[in-house]
Amino acid sequence: MSTTVRCIGAGNIVKAILSGVEKSGVYRTDEMAIFDISSVVREEFKERGYTAFESIGELVKGAPIVLIAVTPQVISSIIQEVKEALSSETVLLSVVAGMSTEWYRERLGDKCKVVRCMPTLTAQAGMGAFAVSRAPAVSDGDFEEVNRFLSSCGIVEEIPESLMCEVVPINGSAPAYFYHMAQVVVEEAVHMGFDEKTALRLFAQTMKGSAEMLLNSGMNAETLENKLRLPGGTTLAALDKMDEFGFDTCLKEGIKACVDRCRELGQL
Fold first, then answer.
1. Closest to 117 in 3D by CA, of 81, 77, 78, 171
2. Is residue 72 marked as binding?
3. Which domains are delineated in the chain?
4. What angle do CA 167, 172, 60 make, to 5 degrees?
5. Is 69 annotated in some ligand binding site?
6. Global confidence as pTM
7. What percent of the chain has pLDDT over 90?
8. Which residues are 130's β-sheet partners?
9. What tens digit of pLDDT does each residue of 127-173 get?
10. Would the annotation count 70 as a binding residue?
11. Other CB atoms within 10 A of residue 126 CB
């Protein structure tokens, strides 16, 4: 098979990444492949032009890049099958939460090429944010194709291995915070008399523009916020009320809980 990137598991995050990659045009569907335990899922991908393997061993054998996208509860049960088919040239791209590159090296050998990645569901829209760290055996040349794959549907930031759990609330889990906020805001808007779709468009577009300003205006979050914190104004009234109810503390505690859970998953 001439496929470049092969995925073990085709759940939500893989579907999001592959959709984003597909839209980018950087890879054709016949350059990508999947294995999933569900025959229905395999058939769905075949119909879209992907190669679908019938086993993990077949998928791993001779693969340039293997994207491992199973749960932490499952990874231990498949790692031996991966090992038996693994080539010294294959780069493993792991999006398994909590599993360190050291975990793979202990089971596959010190020379195994592993890139640990925390992805985001927003890759589906071509706006992913991938935090990665790599094992010592992964050279710049090895990483080049991994970076090409991920950057086709988002940005790639290489960070120290020691921060791979700390990054989860910053990118991996962060979309859920926004979606939850959107749900609350839109529900309140409907309660006040707005049409749901109108309220959602207004809020989502405003958040999209706000993110763009954070990235490209040259101003930090505090400066931008202060532009809206006018004395006696509506925004200040809202922020003061949120502060009264402990918004900052709530957010910080949620971030800590997210990191703690990532570490727990790494011990399964």
1. 171
2. yes
3. 5-163 (3.40.50.720), 174-265 (1.10.3730.10)
4. 100
5. yes
6. 0.93
7. 98
8. 156
9. 999 999 999 999 999 999 999 999 999 999 999 999 999 999 999 99
10. yes
11. 15
